[in-house]
Amino acid sequence: MATIVRMPEVLANATEAAIQGWLVAEGDTITVGQPLAEIETEKAMVEYNSEVAGVLVRLLVGVGDSVDVGAPIGVIAAAGEVDVDVAALLAGEAGPAPAGAPVLPPDEATALESEDSHAEAAGVLPSAPDGSPISVPAVSQPAGAEPPPLRDTDRRRFASPLVRRLARERSLDLGSVVGSGPNGRIVRRDLDGHAASGATPAAVPAVAVSAVPVSAAPGSGTPAVPVSAAPAVAAPAVAGQGFTDVPHTGMRRAIARRLTKSKSSVPHFYVTADCRVDRLLALRGEINASAPRKISVNDFVVKGVAAALLDVPAANATWGEESMRHFDYVDLSVAVATAGGLLTPVLRGVDTLSLSAISTSIADLAERARAGKLRQQELEGGSFAVTNLGMFGVDEFSAILNPPQSGILAVGAAKQRAVVEGGQIVAGTLMTVTLSADHRVIDGAVAAEWLAAFVRRIENPLSMLV
Predict the structure, then answer these.
(1) Residues 396-416: what's their mean pLDDT?
(2) In which order are the strands placed within the sheet that holds 16-22?
(3) Phi-psi region at 423: left, alpha or beta (left = phi > 0; alpha = psi -120 to 50)
(4) 294 in Cβ contact with 356 (< 8 Å)
(5) Residue 54, Cα to own-chain centre: how many angstroms?
């Protein structure tokens, strides 16, 4: 029997995902575990493997299309199965009608749907609990006048919940969007294309009710009924007049959601210190003079963070609802700026890596992050993170935690400043770092102890190499 392949929930609590690329074609023989597609989530790309064997008879989602989790994306027929009725298979998705529910012919169902649309336009609301209809006053038509023709916007528009949500957020009227999906279904690319064409969003006026009654016709016996005043709405902004609206990407929405939740639900506190890095810069120069791969200051910082977590293991932990998890190894997230937003891939086992291995791994993760080639598992885990804006000349800053990680170190630029040495003012190269910590996991004394350990490692760089 043919099997419907569905969009998997490749990311916890994800509601949608997109097909980045199909790795198979219609007619291919599929085996269990064979990669079918590369699926793009909000922040990473995941390879999806087949759970059944057979022959791929239909691809239902195009490359670049985003669909809801659980939606059909393909059909695989069993070995030896021929003449698969894909339409009938997908039609069965709706399931049987509830017991006792009447099954109407298509023409009658369409007619009733049209009547419902006109009834809603006339002000008829759902029935009351006793079965009687609830109605509001409506403008009457002259006797014998024909009802207005059914507009295209009155008809039901077939679209996923995701598309309907995006249409509401963008103030788009689905009635003006042409669907390119199966049976005219509106998919996300139709909304994007509609916006790109410059179509004006539908304005929904907010009508204020007037307190002035309208007199009834003489002798009608009908009480006066309040009528609505002129629509009280602000004039919609016209595109192109000094601004450009850029729709949110999935990554930007994920960043906004996670950071808002982190800042509002995690008790942050901050500890700042200055590191004297003259010896580190001298050692880096000696290493780079003969090393096949150049080592950056950030590579030393990452190594120093890992060494400090070994020195103060109480800080190498994450928060959980029932317990705190303490780690015997060090996995660190390293912030990488991409065109779509900030990504934090995880570098595994930093405590066991050499400086050159750290440099190579960070460069690989950064390159694949900017190319959109990270795997989901490369964005998960880690107890700490490092974010560095020193290359932009930033003196110091504080960062927002990435839950469930308990700490993130924000690194500023290494600059020459006046320092006191032996009672004398001399020039020294200082780098300001700020630790953002989760107070549920790391107390103030532990944070201070960890930061002191980090400064000690950075100011004595040879201690990280032995």
Answers:
(1) 95
(2) 45-49, 35-40, 16-22, 66-68
(3) left
(4) no
(5) 34
Query: In whole angstroms, what is the distance from residue 294 CA to residue 299 CA?
Result: 10
- Which residues are registered as beta bridge partners of 332? 347, 384
Among 38-47, 171-180, 190-199, 242-251, name the one with the lowest average pLDDT: 190-199
Please give the DSSP secondary-structure letter assigned to residue 133: E
Rounded Cα distance between 64 and 70, Å, is 17
Q: Kindly state the tokens that stand for 408.
A: 């993130």
Burial label for 67, CB within 10 Å (0-12, 13-18, 19+), is buried
Bridge partners of residue 135, in order along the sequence: 124
Q: Please, what is the angle between helix 444-459 and helix 297-311, to 10°?
A: 130
Chain-centroid distance of CA 300 in Å reads: 32
Q: What are the C-alpha distances in Å from 310 to residues 8, 326, 328?
A: 38, 11, 8
pLDDT-derived band of residue 203, with 50, 70 and 90 as boundaries?
A: very low
Of 409, 291, 396, nearest to 344 by C-alpha is: 409
What is d(CA 440, CA 451) in angstroms, rounded to the nearest whole number?
17
CB-CB contact of 330 with 306 (8 Å): yes
Condensed to tens digits (0 to 9), the pLDDT of residues 337-394 reads 988 788 899 999 999 999 999 999 999 999 988 887 888 788 888 999 999 999 999 9
Write out the catalytic residue numbers.
439
Q: Which residues contact 385 (CB under 8 A, 6 or more apart)?
A: 332, 333, 334, 335, 344, 399, 401, 402, 405, 407, 408, 409
Q: Which residues pair with 372 in a beta bridge?
A: none
Give 418-451 pLDDT, tens digit per residue: 999 889 999 999 999 999 999 999 999 999 999 9
Amino acid symbol at 54: G
In the structure encoding, which two tokens stand for residue 392, read together? 């932009």
The answer to whether 315 and 446 are in contact (CB under 8 A) is: yes
Nearest partner of 305 among 401, 413, 362, 387, judged by Cα: 387
Please tell me the pTM assigned to this model: 0.60
Q: Determine the Cα angle at 339 with ends 338 and 345, to 5°.
A: 20
Q: Is the dihedral of CA 102, 105, 106, 107 positive or negative?
A: negative
The DSSP 8-state label assigned to residue 233 in this structure reads -
